[in-house]
Amino acid sequence: xxxxxxxxxxxxxxxxxxxxxxxxxxxEEGAYVIAADIKKELLDVVSQxxxxxxxxxxxxxxxDWKKAVEEIVADHGRIDVLINNAGISSEKHMxxxxxxxxxxxxxxxxxxxxxxxxxxxxxxVKQQSGAIVNISSYTAMVGMxxxxxxxxxxxxxxxxxxxxxxxxxxxxxxxAVFPGVIKTPMTENLSESSEVLQRLIQATPLQRLGEADDVxxxxxxxxxxxxxxxxxxxxxxxxGFSAQ
Length: 244
Ligand code: NAD
Known about the structure:
Belongs to the short-chain dehydrogenases/reductases (SDR) family. The protein has helices spanning 17-28, 40-46, 62-76, 99-127, 148-167, 195-202, 212-223, and strands at residues 8-12, 32-37, 52-56, 81-84, 130-135, 172-179, 182-183, 210-211, 234-237. By secondary structure, the protein is an alpha/beta fold. The protein has one domain (8-243): NAD(P)-binding Rossmann-like Domain (Rossmann fold, 3-Layer(aba) Sandwich), CATH 3.40.50.720. It has a seven-stranded parallel sheet, sandwiched between helices. The chain has a two-stranded parallel ribbon with strand order 7-8. Strand 1, helix 1 and strand 2 (32-37) form a beta-alpha-beta unit. Helix 1 crosses helix 7 and helix 3 (62-76) packs parallel to helix 4 (99-127). The termini are far apart. The relative contact order is 0.15. The site of nicotinamide-adenine-dinucleotide (NAD) has 30 residues, from helix 1.
């Protein structure tokens, strides 16, 4: 028996990196996964598995969210788990950031998860059950990165906590995870031999970068009934970096 047997799970950014690994592990545990993304060619690959449905969804678009939720509920009758994982990053320093950079980052990384909760929560309230996991970043916990990315992930942290307090009475749990530097397509431009990464690895108690699998397993815990009394939690997955 799998931990997600008969569960309908929606994973945004499900076609790449951590979202892809979450999708694989969820399927192994019996879930039916709707992997939502903007990259059709990557969705075609993940949806080769019969238990994965690729769905084109731009998390910035309210129309896309509305349509996606309507379709999922019409097809499957429920949404048990929402994982707000889609996101973009930026290395720009504060003095280079334009208002357009700010708006785009906040729209995808901030409004995206907010809109996901806005459209999925009413269905979870009807069900009187549900689990939501939002992917923030360790940069929202420690004083790193004075840029739009850090700001957007701080927004994710705040809305996760707020939603957990407001929806617990409906049997809905909302938790957030805070990954450190994880090896995915998002970070592939950072060379592991570079000085910056070498310093980061040395400053990390577990002495390595994270893998998509490290984050995906923690997310599955928070999405599953194994964490049935956990809501509003903030789980840092960074090899101990921010503990110092
Ligand atoms: P990734 O680039 O491999 O995956 C991100 C996915 O999100 C991609 O498939 C992309 O197409 C999708 N996406 C981007 N914009 C979208 C949009 N508007 N609508 C729908 N889908 C969209 O990166 P990843 O490292 O797997 O990142 C997953 C999440 O983890 C992100 O929210 C990221 O900010 C966060 N994170 C990553 C790291 C890291 O070091 N990799 C660290 C902390 C947090």
